[in-house]
Specification:
single chain, alpha+beta, eight-stranded mixed beta sheet, 24 helices, 20% strand
Length: 929
Amino acid sequence: MLSKCVIVTSLCSLLLFAYGLLINITKIEENRCKLTYMYEYPQFVRISFAENDQFPAYGLYAYSEGQLAHNARNMMFRGAPVIFIPGNAGSYKQARSLASVALRKGIDNGMRYHLDYFTVDLNEQYSGLYGGVLNYQVDFVRLCIQSVLNLYKSIPGGPTTVVLIGHSMGGKIAQAVAASPGMGPLINSIVAISSPMDAPVISLDHYLQNFYNTVNNQWKQNRTVCTTPDRAARLKVEDDYCLTTGKASRQLDHILLVTVGGGIRDTMVHDSFTNSLFSDVHSMTYNVPKVWLSVDHQCAVWCLQFVLVMNRFLHSLLDFNAKRGPNKFVEDKDIKLRNALFYLKNVRSVEPSDMVVKNDVVEEDWIEDIRRNFQLSFEKGLQRTRVQMIILNSNSLYRFMKAEVTNLDTDNWIFGCTANEIDINMRYCSTATPLHNYSSVLPYTESVRRVAQVNLHTIKAQNPSWTHLLLKLPRTDDALKFTVDINNYDDRVLDIQMPKWYSFGSSLLLDDTALGASFYKLRIFGMDHSYQTLAINIDVRSCNADNPSVVANISVPWTDGFTKYSHYYKKNHSVIYVYAPYDKPSGFNSSANPIAVDLHLNPSCRYTLSSSQSLSVMMARIVQQFGQWIPAHCVAILLLAIKHQVSVTPENESFKCGKLHTALSKSTPFFIVTASRVFTKMVLMFKVLPQPEQYDSSILVSVIIHGASLAILLISTAFAWAAIVFCGNFVHKILIKIVCLPIPALSSTLVSCIEKFPMLFGGILMSIALASCGSAALICACVVYFIILTKMYEDYLEHFVLKTAQRIARKLFGIDIRCKGDRQEKTTKPKEETKEAAPASQNAEAATQRHEYDNVHHGLININFHLPLFLLLVVVTLLNFPSFLTWAKHYRLSPSLKPDASLIPSIVILGSLSVLWQMNVPKNMFIIG
């Protein structure tokens, strides 16, 4: 019963895992990116340099279009150089969208200020899966940077630094290049788009992990780490905290490092991987102003909304104070950082001259309105500047204000002042202090939406002399809409408690929103793990407007740069998914500072709010974050299954290897893994006991991943048996076709030799590993092992049929059939003698039958013993398959792969298999028993 429960749990886990995988494939958010169109045919002009001969698979290109390609072919460049570095299996042509938009922007200003885009061809290598190529890529990019800067040496005052844009693994390559000797001064800024920065998404070989460790250590030694305690706790570092400034005290401090993530649609690089301990600015595309949407991994380089913003930022790095001549980048990091914060996070620095402004009372209308909720529309614009005065007092109903204005072009529209001056019947203040930090921009489709959220009581406490807040709307001919919502903050806050595991159904948060309400705040308690997902359902009850818009601002307090905007327009039902990009750091008090969702609603509409746990998104995030655990769990389960198989035989009995599916279904391997985590949780509760390393993930994740792994192995075992039983002969024919020997008899001989001389073939496979690639030899070993298994099954069938015929003949006719070569001998005993000898020989006959049964099932025991080893070999081969892909891509350049991460594992595995095949295990154990 316990085994059946384990199987059912495992199958349910696999179904949940498959469901999450399906959600990831089909996408949980629609792609709202616009395409980047071109006006002329793109031209990639190859730039040759002497060192390129050392890297025949790589190349460097300059981007241009139409007639402008003539200048590129003549190596005439006068813009600021930007080098694009593709990522895992990425093409150098992915720079087209970024480069094309930048080129059009340069044409629009007469090429006075423009960028020259260069792109690196890395032969579409699998750098995210195989780390052996990373150092080669770093060396080539270093040469590319020097070659690009050499193009400007003949021009007086030419640029001396470049900006690197890395997509996917290209961002880590750019970071590694900056840490190389002598390259730091040549790099102005680095922009990493959807790049795994501080840790790889999946580490399949030691080259990849060593590369990350080396680069991270180099940056720690040569760059001042500026972080927060919560961020340092997540990354498990112990560095001094500092404020990011433009003063460079270390070798890499002058480089501006910007990291950008794609969000939930990027199923290849999870949100948390895109942030870096060393980044100056981190942002996600869903909170970048004028982007406000999640993009998938490939879409990040061509999404028009993001491409426009990125090029605006890159153009802001140009030194506009330089005289007419070649473009160059500004070197002051304060300027670069300020521009990055403005374009990527809408953070505007306040200049000292902006601290106090003077008001022109003659040209302005000062209006003091005591209403708490109102909305004004000016379809024909404003003839005079309107100054809306919001009173500051201690009334609890006037505690919090949310103001929103549509189609306003300036950020300078909210002020604080002391209105103690009177002009006729109007109170006013001649000077006011701007409050830029309270103004932000909401996602919009047509007109710009600016919003200000202010705690009036806090502002009053900080500035006791102030009497009013001023909302200043300048004169305009365009239509303008203005909304004010003043309330008691506690009346607009709704609390949600996340269940410990999972809850079905939805919970009603608010049946009907307040009349004229445009703001509600949701506080979510108990969302401590990154896989937990909450769905906020917003339904329109009634609406007096054509556009029941909903904008949600999701803030996770222990993250930096992960504030998310979700927006829906002209929809009567909206679903907003809330989740954390990574787990809550240890020691963070999420009860005092929980995840918050600010809902910006249309005050002309009434809404119903409810919440429920989203199983689909939760499973999609579990697959995305923890799917790489599957191979490790499969290996652990197989090893425990082998241990169970060889230990099921009692003492003083012949060796009987248990069935694999029976060993897999035993509860021991399942509970060893899960119970160890439960034990760790219990130990952590007792401070007296030695504290083990704390797990960051939940037990629920381990149960799902482990159960899915067990189910995968059960299904794989069934498929393996089906292939052995039904496809053995068919596979033999296919293998003979693959061998392609001209003599059919020779092909059959080759298959037979695999069974008779396995160690010889083990040596041949090791030779293949040394001459080409270890993973290629492992693939061949899988084929050889399958042939051996099918031959075992053929022998078992022959022996089984013969013994069955013997028993039938003995039962019916009293005839013993014995096989000697191709001859059979029939012996018949007289019936009378048989009757007399029957009682005396009963025990002997039973013993003979047991012995025959053991002999018949010996072939089955062989298969049971070797099948888990075969599955282990398949898992190892799959883990090393990226090495095979890299070798196949480079075969035209070199017949062997160097360095080869799969070489040593393949040699060890093939050597061990050769011994096992030659010893005919477990036959020797059976005979001894």
